[in-house]
Target: Lon protease homolog, mitochondrial
Amino acid sequence: MKERDPKDSPSDQAPPPAGNGGNTAGNGDGHEGGNGGSNGNGNGDGKSNKNHSWDVVDNQLQKPTVPEVYPQVLALPIAGRPLFPGFYKAVVIKEPTVTAAIKELMKRGQPYVGAFLLKDEGLDVDTITNIDQVHKVGVFAQITSVFPATSGKEETGLTAVLYPHRRIKINELLPIKEKHSVAAVEEVASSKTAVAEEGDKALERVSKKAESEFEPEKAVVQKSEANKTDSQYATSFLADDYAVSLVNVENFVEPEFSKKSPYIRAVTSEIVSVFKEIASLNPLFRDQIASFSMSQSAGNVFDEPSKLADFAAAVSAGEALELQEVLETLPVEERLQKSLVVLKKELMNAQLQNKISKDVESKIAKRQREYYLMEQLKGIKKELGLESDGKDKLVEGFKEKATKLAMPATVKKVFDEEINKLAHLEPAASEFNVTRNYLDWITQIPWGQRSRENYSIMHATTVLDEDHYGLKDVKDRILEFIAVGKLRGTVEGKILCLSGPPGVGKTSIGKSIARALDREFFRFSVGGLTDVAEIKGHRRTYVGAMPGKVIQALKKVQTENPLILIDEIDKLGRGHQGDPSSALLELLDPEQNSSFLDHYMDVPVDLSKVLFVCTANVLDTIPGPLLDRMEVIQLSGYIAEEKAAIAEKYLAPAAKTAAGLEDVNVNLTPEAIDALIKNYCRESGVRNLKKHIDKVFRKAAFKVVQEIGEDEKNPVEEKAEEKKQDDATAATEAKPEEEKQVRKPLVVSKDVSIDINNENLKDYVGPQVYQTERLYEKTPPGVVMGLAWTSMGGTSLYIESVLESSLGPKSTPHLSKTGQLGDVMKESTSIAYTYAKSLMATHFPKNKFFDKAKVHLHCPAGAVPKDGPSAGVTMTTALMSLALNRPVSSNIAMTGELTVTGKVLKIGGLKEKTIAAKRSKVDTILFPKDNQADWDELPDYIKEGLTGVPCDTYKDVYDVVFGDIKKEEVENVWSDVLKEEEEKKETTTV
Model:
């Protein structure tokens, strides 16, 4: 059962004015009974009362009395807060059986129930199944009126207005009989409706007359003792016809007290004082207090402290348990004390609410006043001509910027349209800021503004050589670009793509190119980019829309001909927001980027003068149409000599300066650099080498500080002047600037000297990472060094083959393959095996190795996936080496794909593979004849010490590797083993 919110209907808690016997109901004294509802009949239903008779004394109509003893009542569980004697409360009842029972009580003239607070706040029921569900102390209440809970045609419950008369206590909960169906209950109720309607009409006529003649000041005539029979209060019919909660109760009578008790009068005075404070803060309380004062028969609250305590608890919004304690407390002194505590909390809430309300009102009033004054000030300044409207200033500023730019005609037209729109928009309009931002962007683009380029080839060569060692292809391409521009007098933008392993200087060379050309530089990365709006911009209709990265670059560099570096173009993503690689097609196409259309700007922007430089580790992941628009320059990894030169000229001096050892005698010897390259940093680039050199100099700096010690204090230079002020002045006056202290660098004596050489290098970088140059110093039969290309550069890749079991006449051939090989390499393995068997059968028919051998072919480093079409020659050579039982020279490396007919096919990455071969200390490299041009283009310092052997067919490979073996030796290499097995077989047969 739910209570109606007291905030919605304050009269539910506070009693109405006394003496009101009409529709709004009077308070009804505890011993006199409440009003009856609309008719004042005492039962609250506005219908005829058959059990109560009306007594006339001195021609006055009087109300019936409320029974002083009512041992058994219908129990209603109340949720939220308890009820208090003397104060109305409206409750909502939903269960049909309970509503039907209440209607029957009203018809019988017994509108009395017991209301008890539920212990569980979340429970919402209309019947009590267990006595522990409710608090045992409640109130004996009279139902003054009932009406439907909803305004719909179908009744889903009813609202009953209860008037509590006194406190009662539950002694026993009667068990609920089996519930009747709703239809049965309605049938019982409807059968009695016809009889009741006639009585209702008669009672309505009587009640109208009673309202005009009723005087509450007259004494109520008590009914005769003969009428006070047990049958008048019997509720046994409810148990028979309705599944409701019936309880046996007893009155909870408060002990006698003295109204003149000093303690009672003191607490009463305090409660009245608190009420006055609350009334001054909350008008709702003021009305309730007025109603309570008017309803008191004594006219003085000090004469009725018990009612005052109940009133204080009834009107406060305290916790349910606190209010229940007040209800259960019988001694007036304790009840007053508990009510005072509840009321004090209500006062605190009212004060807090009032404070919040005042703060909000003051802030609003302050803002309104400031706004009013500012508007007045603007109006005065505008009238005096001292200040123009902010919008006019914006328009003038945009027009002034536009005059300094060489906007194309189409852009100028759009600019004028947007300026006119801005001039007619109100600053408060949402489109005002959108238009202002657009005009800000369109005037920030450097239309017709170009930086003067340097066409000096000498200057460019010097700058490029200062920053980078090697990279001849890139430097030559930039010098060609400058030469063309010098001859034409103007340059067009180009799109270059630098492809190579990490750490070879792709990104840093972009900065050097910009410096060599005296161009502005802007870099942005597209690695992992999935949103096409990052390239093409957002539509202006979106909140927070802005142009793409290219337009942002032009705004930052303020020139039409910068160098824009697009990093990691091979790592472009693709998502729900579009395909960024497709958006780059327009940007990087020389035929289209002269009128690049950004979604935000929506005007063509000329990017034909921009030099685009892209970087990538691999070209395979770049879409074909995009790759076709770029001029690719391959950057191979560095050989050991190049790394050593880079370390000595660039890395070591920079690391020494960064470590604060510029003026200290700390030297990294060339031997130590060679050891770093050989034993610690074998990757293609120099990024890892740079990290190790930085680590060496940091360790050296730590040693220097340890040797000098920290006894001497470093001098401190105070740049801010000291101001002498008294403590009082310093406390009141704020210092505009804090005193800054700059620490001087530590001066190191020239006697301190540290040399990092090959002997003590491990003290700085730890033990060696690579112990040997290659996996096999001397290769056994069946093992051959191949060459592979990776995104990190070239590397050596050994191919191993072994016999799984000994050869014999009964052996069957088989080939096992391991090493996490890809599909292409698996096919290469099958081709190599087939060709090796074909070669043996054709040229060496007496060698039955492949007819009997179970061979296992493996590529080491099984955790690394391997794939690619360049290992066929190496695999065939490994199988042939095993079949001939002849090791291949450890100084030979090879690469190339093979067909089943023995043709050696062209491969890629020859430069990287050659560098890997040189790093592995080989002296002969076999490669496809079709790669002869690639070999010829290799720099001499890379080919130095290497002998390149181009091979057209596998016969060329065989002649180099196994050319000194005679045919008889090949045919007889396994003959002894097979012959011994055959002889053993013949001996066993005999």
